[in-house]
Amino acid sequence: MALAIFDLDNTLLGGDSDYLWGRYLAENGIVDPQSYHDTNLAYYHDYQAGQLDINAFLQFVFEPLAKNSMQNLLSWRAEYLQQKIMPIILPKGRELIEYHRQQGDTLLIITATNSFLTKPIAEILGIDHLIATDPEMVDGRYTGQVQGVPSFQHGKVVRLQHWLTEHQHNLAGSYFYSDSHNDLPLLEQVETPIAVDPDETLAEIARQRDWKILSLRE
């Protein structure tokens, strides 16, 4: 049984779930609209450029989780999923997931976006296994700190190795679908790396290495 690994943002989704959560918070006045939007956008550009300071970014995005009650967070998340996420789930992404499901592959999403946001998205997509960046929780409230290794760049490799050990799995016959050059460390680990609607850097590397390039948007 092979492992089919999927990045989430701009791969199975036609957008970035972390960035859109920030947009949702700003649009609804949960955070200061202008300053949060500007900072959120700056971090998004850093991510695209491969220059993201993951620790600074996580401190920024986890602050609203720490400052608000779980009741409010869950209510906002439900609305965010309907308004921001459901419209950008790519039909061809669902078809790709179903193809691997029919092949009997083990399905796994691995994403830098935090698990508070991505766990329900994985459930919507029918994928049981998720590796995401985990916000720390103490006594039912988020602390604003990260728990464990962030699932970003080489951190995805570290987290996946832990997952493989825990689930007694391996990378024989494995696939990884991603849009971003930030995922090169993991793309280089799997048997079949596939660039999905890739950024310019990843597209060039994929051509040089003769990796398959796929679009889920056309």
Report on the architecture of this protein:
With 218 residues, this protein is α/β, with parallel strands linked by helices. Helices cover 50% and strands 19% of the residues. Helix 6 links the parallel strand 2 (106-114) and strand 3. The protein is globular, with a radius of gyration of 17 Å. The two termini are 29 Å apart. 37% of the residues are buried. The model has no long low-confidence stretch (mean pLDDT 96).
Look at the structure and give the mean pLDDT: 96
Tell me the name of the CATH homologous superfamily of the largest domain.
Answer: HAD superfamily/HAD-like
In DSSP terms (H or I, runs of 4 or more residues), the helix count works out at 9
**Beta-strand percent range:** 15-25%
Number of β-strand runs:
7
The neighbouring-strand order within the major sheet is 4-3-2-1-5-6-7
Helix content: 40-55%
Q: Secondary-structure element sequence?
A: EHHHHHEHEEHEHEHE
At the first level of CATH, what is the class of the largest domain?
A: Alpha Beta
Give the count of structural domains. 2
CATH topology of the largest domain: Rossmann fold
Which structural category fits the helices and strands? alpha/beta
Sheet of most strands: 7 strands, mixed
- CATH level-two architecture of the largest domain: 3-Layer(aba) Sandwich
Per the principal axes of the C-alpha atoms, what is the gross shape? Answer: globular
Distance between the termini: 29 Å
C-alpha-based Rg, rounded: 17 Å
* Low-pLDDT residue intervals, each spanning 5 or more residues: none
